[in-house]
Amino acid sequence: MMNRKIALERLKMLINDEIVVATYSTASDWIEIFDRPLNFFSFGAMGLASSHGLGLALARPERKVLVLDGDGSLLMNLGTLVTISAAAPKNLIHMVWKNGSYEANGGHPVPYPQVDFAAMARAAGIASVYRANDPENFESAVRQALSIEGPTFIEVEIEQGPLGPRSYKEMYKASRRQRLHEALNA
User: Fold this and answer.
1) How far apart, in whole angstroms, are the C-alpha atoms of residue 56 and residue 63?
2) 88 — phi, psi (to 5°)?
3) Among 14, 38, 40, 114, which residue has the fewest nearby CB atoms (within 10 Å)?
4) How far apart are CA 184 and CA 186, in angstroms?
């Protein structure tokens, strides 16, 4: 099990022009670590980061799209695994940050914290599936996923982060969406 911020620092070193879709607690950490125009923040509708990522991957097949999803969030939209498999975007990397809780909503435990998301992704038809529970195998999984055609899925086992209210004000700025739009059209 690892600290999410340490993993995100590693991720920062591995990406270039990929689109990163982040949600809730991971989004808060990601904006602090790597605020950039090609970030898309998915919030306000828990469970939709994977759907937003799929849409971006299908619309922009020339760019890799990394989804930084939460386990509680994915549990609210498990059907997306089958949809991703059926659509088979070659440029989509779906990471699920597994800490066994609905962290953004106060850290309430998910109904079954031992859920095996990697097995679910495989059962849904996603062929390239990885697990990571320390910084080294996380970095290895990301490098592998970036080098192959997807879709790929990475289950990332992390410690629970800070609980309590976070400010999403910075993510809601219209200028942030405008920067993404401009970066995608550049």
Assistant:
1) 9
2) 50, 50
3) 114
4) 6
End-to-end CA distance of the chain: 38
Query: Dihedral of the CA atoms 184, 30, 141, 122 (nearest 10)?
Result: -80
Closest C-alpha to 46, from 93, 103, 87, 113: 103
Please tell me the distance from the alpha carbon of residue 163 to that of residue 157, in angstroms, as a whole number: 17
- Per-residue pLDDT tens over the stretch 94-153: 999 998 876 666 666 678 778 999 999 999 999 999 999 999 999 999 999 999 999 999
Integer angstrom CA distances of residue 81 from 7, 125, 136: 23, 8, 26
Rounded (10°) angle between helices 135-147 and 4-14: 30
| Residue 164, Ramachandran bin (φ over 0: left; ψ between -120 and 50: alpha; else beta) | left
158-174: pLDDT as tens digits: 988 776 556 677 777 88
Helix, strand or coil, per DSSP, at residue 161: coil
What is the set of domains in the chain, with CATH numbers? 4-185 (3.40.50.970)
